[in-house]
Amino acid sequence: MAKSTAKDGDSDGKMKQRTLLGFFGKPKPAASADSPSTSPILPLDGKARSIASSSKPASSSPAPQADSSQSLANESNGTSSTRKRVSKSPSLARAKKSKLDSSTPPTSDPEPASVNVSSEPTVLSSSPVPAQRSSASLIPRKTGKRASAVSYAESEDDDDEPKSSKATTRKKSKVVLDSDDESDYKIDQDDKASPDLLSVASSEDLRSDASLSPAPRPSTKKRPAKSSSKSKARAKPAESERSASELELSEDDDKPQKLAPLAKQREAARKAIRAVQIGSAIRDEGEVGTGPQSLGGGAHKSRAELEKIKQKAKEDAFEFLVDPRDANKNRPGHADYDPSTLYVPTKAMENLTQFEQQFWEIKKNHFDTVLFFQKGKFYELYENDARIGHSEFGLKLTDRVKMCMVGVPEATFDFWAAKFLAQGYKVGRVDQAETAIGMEMRHKDAKSAGEKASSKKIVQRELNCVLTSGTIVDERMLSDDLSQHCIAIREYTPSSSARPQFGLCVLDASTAEFRIIAFADDICRTKLETTLRLLRPRELVHERVNLSQATTRILRNVLPLQCTWNALKAADFADGKGDIHRIFAAVNRAVPAPITQIYDNEQAMSALGGLIAYLRSLNLDKDLVTTGNFQLFDPVRSGERMVLDGQTLAHLEVLQNSQGGSEGTLISLLSRCVTPFGTRMLKGWVCQPLRAASAINARLEIVACLIEHADFANTFEKATKTMPDLERLISRIHAGTIKTKDFDRVVTCFEQIDRLLGRLGSIAKTLPAAGLAQTIASAPDLVPLVEKLRGLFQVEEHELVPLSGADTLYDDCVDAVVAIEKDLYDCLSQYRRNLKSNDLTFKDIGTKEIYQVQVPVKIKVPSNWTQMSKTKDWHRYYSPEVEKLVRQLKEARERRNAAIKQFKGRLCAAFDQHYDIWLQAVKLIAEIDCLLSLAKSSAALGEPSCRPVIVDSDRASVDFENLRHPCIFASTPDFIPNDVQLGASAKSTMLVTGANASGKSTLLRSVAIATIMAQIGCFVPASAAKLSPVDTILTRMGAQDQIYANASTFKVEMDDTKKILSDASMSSLVILDELGRGTESGDGYAIAFATLHALATRNNCIGFFATHFTSLVSDFAYHTQIRPCCMATEMNDNTREVTFLYRLVDGATTKSYGPNVAKMAGIPSDLVERAIAISSQFEVQTKQREASKRKSEDLPLTLQTDTSYLVKQSRAVAQSTAFTKTNGQLARTLFTIRENIQVMSL
Hints:
By secondary structure, the protein is of the alpha/beta class. Helices cover 38% and strands 15% of the residues. A 7-stranded mixed beta sheet has the order 18-30-31-32-28-33-34, sandwiched between helices. A 6-stranded mixed beta sheet has the order 8-9-7-6-10-11, with helices on both faces.
């Protein structure tokens, strides 16, 4: 081969060199003086040089592709025969297989591979090759012996593509291994692919570097190459080799054919390289004739010829991807375009290879999903999916005929799927439904049955499931123990003024738990917001153009940024009732009772139908719905539980802090559960505390008892600390997708649970808390169920197999395998006698070439034996008898594996018959875990802490002594406690004033958090606590703009205030912090005044009203239910420094000390001084106006308001008009007026 020299191609005379990488990799642009970079040159002498290369972006014109499984025609170097008779043996290529490095999930180096060309300098690229189809990385390393191509994946489906009779020699050829450790090398015959230019180059024309192997190909165990004294010049192949070398495969993946002689193929390769290189030069320089010339030197290509090359590249691509359309032939941008489907014309599908047809039949219905396609021991991604893997994670691209490809080992699927999911992609898993042996047996059975054999002899594959961020079912892919929800929503608003009606269906796919919600909401969508903040879904499913603008704003404002929105057609939401009936009828089960209770609610059933339609597209509908785990869910549960709406959960930082984390939240303080299902249950307890005083006291009694008796907790933790997530695993058993080790572990755990509940029951009987023993006594009897399962199976070689006699089909298959293995050893014994040597043994090479007869080199074997492999001391053969028996053994093992698979399905079904009982036991363990978590949290509060006293009353009240904020004092040792009394014998509303940063908001949150803790059944951080249960906590704190909701700060405040005034009752706790901001001070004061008066006089709730409007103190001085308080401060008159005492005291503060806080924040001192002067002047004027106003009033404004209210109501009664206030409220208003008048008279 002649040397390739670079000629002057530009005015600067810079040298450019092109190699085969210029064809198979992305062409390198010309060098630029502004952005020089160097690439090493490795000539034959081994010394490195460098040349300048440009940083200009390379052209995206596709280069011809090569198949990853294409064989290389190499010259003979004396290698032994591969599939030879002892007497005669044609010389064929040997293959090496990389060995999987299972220590870490493989990643792919995005750097391009290097190529060495014999007898000429080689340019090595050092820049990444983004999303470029490249086959250069497939060249095997030359080791002194000829090497055939190695498939990308170690595949079990040897006959994945059909082969013509012309390929018989290649199909039957075996590799003669010349290693002492042949187990590292495996033969792969998975893909029979089209020729590439590398396959027609001689082995001495091309030399590859180890870095060329495509990631994540596992590292290869290498042996030193044997030294060779052969000349570097290319030798003419022997006549015996030419016939084998010239047998190449056509571009059609299915029809191998004999091509032109090798010399003509090489010449065609050179011409193609030449054309592409000139095209690269033109793209780099922008003019014809200015780039580097071809390897052979000579004429430049015309622009017309280059355009023809580009057009040919476009024609080679799949035509349906050039102009993609959905299944209904809509293009992107059309109103009805469906991104999940792809239109593939019938004619185009017929022209594809069988494997490509199999791939596109699945991909066309999941076009928006990244498909992991199983090929043997690897999962491979093709076309757009491969490019995503390359661009997102650096997986290196290779080619498979016309499709680009990346791949990962089978064992790392969970790892890579989780990475794709984290980036917001859907992930589909396509698994092999049979092995290559199973495929051949299927065709053989069909032929023997007289059926017409299918022309598609290819391993069957099927879509197992599609995973999304909100429907992950495998706990290994979940980031934490908390639920990850997918919500389907349906809205109906009869008119613009009517209340919107919602139907929601909530799914936790990991536990297969469905919760159905239906409600009529207010104009602010309060219940919807509460539900969303409580559940924080990962995915939202909605009907296209169904949601109103107001609802959409709420969703965008409340949902996490990572939440995925899925818009479905209206037809998917149309028949929820029919969908659920069809699913349960298919499994001969009745529809669960919770669903039948809401049959008449159109919105709820529509949401259920939409969620089922979405799960159907993911192939998860039957697995999840048929568990029957349905519940009716009410996020407010008025009357049964304390209501914590979405705003309260956010303001009090119950689940998340303001930064979106969990540090400093109430749930982080209380969550000390051992089991993952206990952690999920505790979250529900925290978000929905108890309401009934009797239930709260019963739980507090258990918690107090557990604090005193640590032996109970020790026994429980010892048995459950290593327990897996049983709630999730039993849902996987229902779906039949659980792994063998997990099934055995689940059964073992339920055996442990049964023994554990017995021990805990014995301990509980000795404790004073009767409720604990009653809870444990409600456990189901698991002994007969577990014993029945144990009598069916055993774990053998990581498989669930039936016990002897439990499955007749399996027993027959095992007997057949044993019989064939006995025949094999009988043959071995006969051969030992015939050859007079006891050194003959069986040797397995990998998992395919098994039971090879290993014979010492010195022994001569019969001529009809076929040599399979060899080492220095041993030769290995198949005799005709052994070869036949090995085939029978493989088929028998395949039938045994099929029997095991069927048995596993029956075993899972037997377990699933008692799904409700297993779930009941799990819930009981979770409840005990939650009680122990509350006990541990209570004990960790330190001093002072106490068990709260809960009294039953119609009106709410709280009384705390030395109260601290439980989430703050742990990090603040000198935290200042405070006493708080609201309701009962004390006034119901506390009007709190104080300086900025004086601790008002912290005090308000402390009371609310302590109330929640008490009603959960936990101790509180106070020296004494007494309260009557609160039905809801309503808060308005920390107002801010809500851009998505199109609401200003003041609008947000008014919306929340309106909701509080509507929902607050005598049993409610209300917290309003600095109401009236964001508008003119006069309007703000008026709104604050009116709201405070309404809460104290009409709603009669307990609560706090924190404000900087100090005039409210004097205006409500005579109100009997309002107690003015302030946070104490001290000010140094000389230095004007303010000291915050963080003590709650009676009275009012006259200053907010805003300028002083500004000075503390670093505002320039001259500005602060000016602010102090203006503030003092304004304070004097304000006092004068208030004094003048009080002199002119006959009655205080509050009394005037109350009197006006009574007059209005009396008129309404007299005129028989509709009026909703009760007589009790009127009486309380009269009582308030009377008390105020009495105070004035004094």
